């Protein structure tokens, strides 16, 4: 079984639109949206939830006002500036609380409770392109990495149970915690970029992250015709680093028109646009064959 | 005043907005890139990054000779960063959140403060404005600690004028951390189903902060009217609409600041500046 993650470093490069098309082209795969913070793939795939589960992770400190003696030691201890005092009343800002338990453990009055946090929900759903595992983290929550790990485990387990040979993941932007978690055990990272200074800059950083994980990198340049010279520069960079180029995709408003109809590009357009993505997908499958498990 | 330019969805035009605002800002301002995972503002403002400083987080260092394997450090650590296995103290510095709990509870003084590199804080000037950005070390998972380092400088930076923050995308902890100190939040979106969906998420996420918020609709004529209708229904002011044009996309792709490169946009961003300022000042006057 192989696992592919579509990432970009830079947000808005076209990850989800391209993942949507690959979802249609992929046969025998489980789909997985690892952008648990701001997921969008479900908008194209209209999933019907088969199972829905709560994601509980980490804890948050809450001061019991009846027990608190107002000594203020917790304010000194907290490295996250989460605790403040107003008129002798100490409270913890849940958005600042890191859940480290330091104040809970060291409060002399034992006045701080430490309940578990319900950070979001996750789903196994049916779509017209097969099973999809996805989630929604609640706003402002941490532990997106743990949720990503959970979704990946579930997707792999389902693929194994159903005898499928592929897990196709839509990743998060950036290079931080959810992206690092999405990289673990992945065979191939397909980096979607665009021919802009931000596109190249962010590609370099996310590809370096892939190299740290010894994950093979393939690159797809989206909206390539916005700046052909920059596209050349990006492709030259990729060749110099040994990243596989799996194609150029043009700037075309059909991508938005397809999205408005809640269709993936390859459903909306059967002409040259779809062919470009079919070729890219075929290159990706051929590349996977060369990756030894 | 502190202004944050944020968005749920990435790639909607935060950096375009920030760089364009910087070009029309008519008061002293410090430009701060808090999208430390993928900072891009410098690619457009081209500051001379004269001062680059490494930033660290405190992590424990173990002195095995002093450790009695009591396990108190393991018990307090919520992040699986420290454990005792077969009588040996093991520290996983990459997992550590720097809370200092293990150091506080160790009765033997077997732990001392060490450090892990978070990344860099880069300072300089761009077009006469002060410029600060964080750049997360590739491989570092946690962006909020690096952001916190920069945020601690805001009171000092604010003495020199306004602060304009380029925030990371999303609505989880880094995005919230980036807008927490702001007096006013600008939400950049695009009128597509993805843009609208993530705009709603961001609005829901930032609403409890009770700060004035307004929308910038980028590529305004590209998609549908769902974002506009939502703004109207929820009384979110639309502070600017930036038309879709290939000319703008191409200027951006060449690393240009679009409010400089495309004449009519200068006025669009000057109006946005006025709307942001009026909202922030009204809020302060009411407080």
From TrEMBL, chain A:
Residue span(s) of domain 4Fe-4S ferredoxin-type: 59-88, 89-117
A Pfam family this chain is assigned to: Fer4
Lineage: superkingdom: Bacteria
Keywords on record: Iron, Iron-sulfur, Metal-binding
Gene3D superfamilies in UniProt: 3.30.70.20, P-loop containing nucleotide triphosphate hydrolases
Protein's name according to its UniProt entry: Cobyrinic acid a,c-diamide synthase
Species lineage: Bacteria, Pseudomonadati, Thermodesulfobacteriota, Desulfovibrionia, Desulfovibrionales
UniProtKB/TrEMBL annotation, chain B:
Transmembrane annotation, as ranges: none
PROSITE patterns in UniProt: 4FE4S_FER_1, 4FE4S_FER_2
Keyword presence, Metal-binding: yes
The protein's name: Cobyrinic acid a,c-diamide synthase
Stretches assigned to the 4Fe-4S ferredoxin-type domain: 58-84, 87-116
Taxonomic source organism: Pseudodesulfovibrio portus
SUPFAM superfamilies referenced in this protein's UniProt entry, alphabetically: P-loop containing nucleoside triphosphate hydrolases (SSF52540)
Superkingdom of the source species: Bacteria
Keyword terms of this UniProt record: Iron, Iron-sulfur, Metal-binding
InterPro entries from the UniProt entry: 4Fe4S_Fe-S-bd, 4Fe4S_Fe_S_CS, CobQ/CobB/MinD/ParA_Nub-bd_dom, P-loop_NTPase
